[in-house]
Design brief:
Elements (H helix, E strand, L loop, with lengths): L7 H10 L18 H13 L18 H15 L1
């Protein structure tokens, strides 16, 4: 599978709204402490990029964030896109 390169505009948007340690290139990494809104931002950013036609996610359960937040954000974004 080939990953699309995110446009500089999308990377800048992510950089402005994510912690400095987050990866704003593809694959996007919102970090392990990400609340639902950061997941939603990353999914929306990826889907709004003209070079992307889909987005997927991996949520690694940890003690810093509730993994249900990422799942809920993904569902909310996909329902808006439908």
């Amino acid at each position: 599978m080939r990953l699309a390169s995110l446009t500089p505009e999308i990377q800048q948007k992510l950089r402005a709204l994510c912690p400095p340690a987050a990866s704003v290139v593809n694959p996007i990494d919102v970090l392990g402490d990400a609340p639902a809104d950061r997941y939603a931002l990353a999914i929306q950013a990826a889907l709004s990029d003209p070079m992307s036609d889909r987005a997927g996610g991996v949520d690694a359960a940890n003690r810093h964030a509730d993994s249900r937040d990422g799942a809920a954000a993904g569902r909310a974004v996909s329902q808006r896109a439908a």
